[in-house]
Fold:
Amino acid sequence: MKVIVPLAGKGTRLLPLTKRVPKPLVHVAGRPVMDYVMDTIAGFDVEELIVITGHLKQDVEHYITTHYQVPARFVEQKTLDGTAGAINLARPWVDGPVLIIFVDTLFDADLSLIRSSDADGILWAKEVEDYQRFGVIVTDGKGYMTRIVEKPDTPVSRLANIGLYYIKDWRTLFDGIGQVLGRAAGKGGEYYLTDAFQYMVDQGRRLLVANVGGWYDCGKVDTLLETNEHLLRNGRALVPAPQPGVVIRGPVRIEPGVTLVECTVGPNVTVEAGSVIERSTVERSILGRQVMVRGSTVSGSVIGDHQSLEGLTVRDSVMDGSEIVAAK
Structure:
């Protein structure tokens, strides 16, 4: 099968870091978000990645071609006209079933359903309590989609749409996208892929809704740090040998080559190679490579590579290029 990966977004909720780093290449627990997503499809025979690029497209193309063995095709989304517009750009190269993955989230999903289900498509979803924040999928008694409702006022469903889809009937999908693009655009001039799924259902196609075990957002500071903690608690932790004057409160990932002097680190902290933390406290944060923290406090924040903090208090913020922006 082919895999469509839309990557055109600017990641505005992680500014200023995403001025320099494409959103799918932002690090969590020491790896780019996209690496975890690619791990999930490692067991499948992927004929081609069709990558929809935009912001910092050269960096995305270079990373994918140098880090993954899967053949990749890059198509630029010059106008950010929504998810339906992004997927439509892949249409000339799709000639069979496709997997569509939006990579600003991580998920624990059973992709083996692709091999066993006879449905026309599969939409993965996560049951949530705060259903008002999401597009939710309404199902019939057999677990097939009947409709998608954006941010409902009442609990018509608690199954949040997570941005992971397998479409066997690709022809009807693209017919639906054509119908969507022929209408007036929605809010912000965008066209929504979910409207194409509704078209498929209205045409009698069966879209199975499958639950995921976990769904972890990497698109903004607070959820990125929650995802960091989840990964640290599930195999990504790395604790240095005890040192005098250094207090470590797990879970943490402190990579080889990090220098710690009279400091407290953790809980929920990742510090990448070459960084120095001296006479400081760092908690609930992600520090990139070669970050210098002296006489400072860092909490609830994401600090980009090669940043220097001396005598500062940084809370609930993003820092990169010597610029600090409060978390959105």
User: Anything to note?
Assistant: Residues 221-236 form the longest helix (16 residues).
